[in-house]
Amino acid sequence: MWHSRFWVLSLAVLFLTPFVHASRASGRVDGSVKSSVFLSPPFFLQQGSVVNKYYYDIPFPRGHTALKSFDAEVVDEMGASVPLFETYLHHWTVERYYGPKGTQVDRWSPNFILARNAGVCKNDLAQYFGLGSETRRTSTWVPGPYGIEVGNPKEIPSGYEERWVLNVHAIDTRPGVKDRFRCTECKCSLYNVTKSEYGHPLDKDYIGGLYCCYDQTRCQLRDGFKGGEVRKLFLKYTVKWVEWDETIVPVKVYILDVTDPGKTTDRSSCKVEYQVEPCNLEEERNGKCVDTKKTTVAVPHGGEIVYGVAHQHSGGTGAALYGQDGRLLCSSIPTYGKGSEAGNEVGYIVGMSTCYPEPGSVRISDGELLTFESNYSSSQLHTGVMGLFYFLVADPQPLNSSISWGDEVMKRWWAFGLVGVTVAVIFGVGYRRLRRNGEGYQSI
Ligand SMILES: *[C@@H]1O[C@H](CO)[C@@H](O)[C@H](O)[C@H]1NC(C)=O
Ligand SMILES: *[C@@H]1O[C@H](CO)[C@@H](O)[C@H](O)[C@H]1NC(C)=O
Ligand SMILES: *[C@@H]1O[C@H](CO)[C@@H](O)[C@H](O)[C@H]1NC(C)=O
Question: Domain locations in the chain?
Answer without folding.
Answer: 1-31, 32-396
